[in-house]
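Researcher: Re-running this chain for the archive, since the previous output was lost when a drive failed. Same request as before.
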Amino acid sequence: MSLSELRVFGRSGTPISPLTLGTMNFGEGTGNGQGAPTGADESIRIIHAALDAGITAVDTADVYSQGESEQVVGRALRGRRDDVFLATKFHGQMSRNPAHSGNSRRWIMQAVEGSLRRLQTDRIDLYQAHRPDYNTDVLETITTLNDLIRQGKILYYGTSVFTPAQLVEAQWLATTNHLIPPVGNQVPYSMLVRGNERDVLPIAQQYGLGVLAYGPLAGGWLSGSFVLESGKPPTRVHTLPGRYDLSGPSSERKLLAADSLARLADKLELSLVDLAVGFALTHPAISSVIIGPRSEEHLQAYLRAADVQLGETVLDAIDDLVPPGTNFVERDAGAIVPSIEFAELRRR
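Model: Regenerated structure tokens:
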């Protein structure tokens, strides 16, 4: 596998690179405390370097640094917009006003205009619901997105971390109401986060959905700096503390698995990043793996990993360490459904 070997994004027929540049780390200010440790100038250099290397897809979201990431992407793509499959997302709260969030028609129609303005473009290639909205009927959401396609403001739409039932419901509602159905889904997927192998990825294949897989390094657990001897926490421990509490038995098992995978990579004379990205690229349902570099050095490590090919023996060894379908921590699924998160929904 190399960046020149493009993959088709689901039934859309659109070819994209096997790596997608994720921009959650990019913002106008350095270390602004909003999930953007990389300043604007360096972010633009990283984007240009990624495009020059052969990456053709860029994924962002309105909520990343409250619009700053989209602004940086818009600046970086001047003169190169037509060569990029540009994806962004809506759902997250964009101001102190809670009405400025969600998947309702009222908010989507506002959100898309904001994204188009910040991205300095006349259309979004893939517009994604960043999370399910349990207060909004799915039919309202997909009807609105269907209208945006008719208006030419978006070309395709998709979802992110939707449950299997929600994925099927969206397809069924679109078909029965003569609407354009979603063509993609974004999911977490790594050697440590394999729960989506049970149902989400097979459903994506069944309906011809393109899949953007994020978190190949499992939020830092597979970055190469987190093994038993080091005693160092993952790099994002402060931004996502709920996923890095090492006091519980599930996290302890996850830590042991991460250490074993690091040892496997060392035995194969690969970096852990090579092994992690190579693994994520192997699943037949995955269209492209989202990478999230914070520096040009990080980008180069990801680019080298795109050339890694893992044989059956190596994949079997990974399966032995982390069985298919395994999630160690519920939060690793990307979102916790209300029926699990809120006890009052399970008790009379």
